[in-house]
Write a structure and sequence with these properties.
Oligomer: heterodimer
Number of domains of chain B: 1
Shape of chain A: globular
Number of strands of chain B: 4
CATH superfamily of chain B: TusA-like domain
Helix content of chain A: 55-70%
Order of helices and strands of chain A: HHHHEHHHEHHHHHHHH
Radius of gyration of chain A: 20 Å
Shape of chain B: globular
Number of helices of chain B: 2
Number of domains of chain A: 1
Number of helices of chain A: 15
Largest sheet of chain B: 4 strands, mixed
CATH architecture of chain B: 2-Layer Sandwich
Largest interface: A-B, 50 and 35 residues
């Protein structure tokens, strides 16, 4: 029994190691691509936003898939439920009410996430992690934008704390937290939630929607991994400029490399189409989209993945972010299509078509190694750290 | 000063990462060397954030506890 208790503690009492989480996220992303399509949050967000706009009569979309059938929406619902289940299983769930200033930053950040993701044709997950893995030049372009955006977002937060301290005044209520003086019922609720999600996936299968059930479970797995490890792509981009800690930057670089190896195998062996997830945003779209998204994720305190699983663990600020991310994505797409700018975001560049398979792989590995090396050097020298 | 006497309390409940750490850093910068600041936060991410902050800056976490979803830290400014 002691061995089981130790394993239970490793899973639900202590946070999972960040590097382990990065490897798991990359592996799940490769499985997901092998199954159907890579991971992204923005497709599901736009599905939700389109439903909001349809609800108020702003758009008419007879072709719009229901949220319980769209693969992107199901992935997001899974991440949300997985974040909630992970928090419950470790008795960390609580509704953390946000003060007004935080709600405003969460909502504004969400709008920027939506706009940035539409410019780059993907959020930091779909447009950076998955696009880079798919050997699309746009992925590396968005990375440049994300670095600049995270830096600018952090500079803004530092300015706000100095000159408008009232906008980020703390003191808020925490509701429904686990009691510390007696055993909590949260882990039981978490186990029941996981069981319910599994039954939902089986129900999808019985009604002839097996892929939809599988998408939901992929999302749940990602939500649990992120919640238990708190592996964070916002930290990966922001932290070198803040405390200088490089752990999440190294983990993110590792995730991109492992995911890229998996995607490359799938494409090289012709198991997947080579043009998949290579979108026409290499250019102003990826750069500006990354910049806008980078500012948004720093203001919100969560990216395409982090906003959703943190909403699931009860952080009210991120509820505002998720709602505005969805709305911002749909509105931005309307504007981009309406103005014709959608056609001018950039070009689709499949790196192996330009520099060969080995050249493309080498490029991604060298860029990620350089990013991790920069974070490690800066961790010791603190040359770029503000705190 | 003993570890349990905190002259300054930063209530960061409701604030999401990275605000608690930035506010703590600002408060410590204005404090005298060796001074202790008490931080209250509700974002579970603050735990890992503060550990990274301690590693990077040399400020010391003297005490930590959690009750009813609120994390409490006592942090001493580096000399």
């Amino acid at each position: 029994m002691r061995a089981f208790a130790e394993q239970h503690a490793a899973l639900f009492r202590r946070p999972w190691p960040v590097l382990t989480a990065a490897l798991l996220v990359a592996t799940v992303n490769v499985f997901l691509f092998a199954f159907d399509r890579p991971w992204t949050a923005s497709a599901g967000m736009r599905n939700w936003g389109d439903w909001m706009l349809t609800g108020v009569g702003l758009v008419e979309r007879p072709d719009l898939l229901a949220p319980w059938l769209s693969s992107g929406s199901l992935l997001n619902l899974g991440v949300l439920a997985g974040g909630c289940a992970g928090a419950l299983l470790s008795a960390e769930f609580a509704v953390r009410v946000a003060p007004r200033g935080e709600l405003v930053k969460g909502a504004l950040g969400g709008l920027l996430l939506g706009g940035g993701a539409m410019l780059a044709l993907g959020c930091n997950i779909g447009g950076f992690l998955s696009a880079t893995s798919a050997l699309s030049l746009a992925g590396l372009g968005m990375m440049l934008g994300l670095v600049a955006g995270a830096f600018l977002g952090l500079r803004y937060l530092l300015w706000e704390l100095e000159h408008r301290p009232a906008w980020s005044r703390g003191s808020a209520r925490v509701l429904g937290a686990a009691a510390t003086d007696r055993p909590s019922r949260q882990p039981l609720a978490g186990a029941l939630l996981l069981l319910g999600l599994l039954l939902a996936a089986l129900a999808y299968g019985r009604r002839g929607y097996a892929p939809q059930g599988v998408f939901l479970l992929f999302g749940v797995a990602l939500g649990v991994i992120f919640q238990r490890s708190r592996f964070c792509l916002v930290r990966a981009f922001r932290e070198p400029f803040m405390t200088g800690d490089g752990e999440h930057t190294r983990a993110a670089a590792l995730a991109v490399v492992v995911s890229t190896l998996g995607f490359t195998i799938l494409k090289f062996a012709d198991l997947k189409d080579r043009g998949e997830w290579v979108f026409a945003s290499a250019g102003i779209g990826a750069l500006a989209g990354g910049l806008v998204f980078g500012v948004g994720m720093t203001l919100a305190g969560g990216c395409g993945a982090g906003a959703i699983w943190r909403a699931g663990e009860g952080q009210v600020k991120l509820w505002a972010t998720v709602a505005c991310f969805a709305l911002g994505a749909s509105l931005a797409r309307l504007v981009l299509v309406g103005t014709g700018f959608q056609q001018r975001l950039g070009v689709a560049v499949f790196l192996p078509a330009v520099v060969g398979w080995s050249g493309a792989l080498l490029l991604v590995v060298v860029v990620m190694a350089a990013w991790a090396a920069f974070a490690t050097w800066n961790e010791a020298s603190r040359r770029f750290s503000a705190l | 000063m003993t570890a349990t006497e905190a002259p300054l309390t930063l209530d960061c409940t409701g604030l999401v990462c990275p605000l608690p750490v930035i506010k703590l850093s600002k408060a410590l910068r204005r404090a005298t060397p060796g001074a202790v600041v008490e931080l209250l936060a509700s974002d579970p991410g603050t735990v890992a954030d503060l550990e990274a902050f301690e590693r990077q800056t040399g400020h010391r976490i003297l005490e930590r506890s959690a009750a009813h979803g609120v994390f409490r830290f006592l942090v001493r400014r580096a000399a």
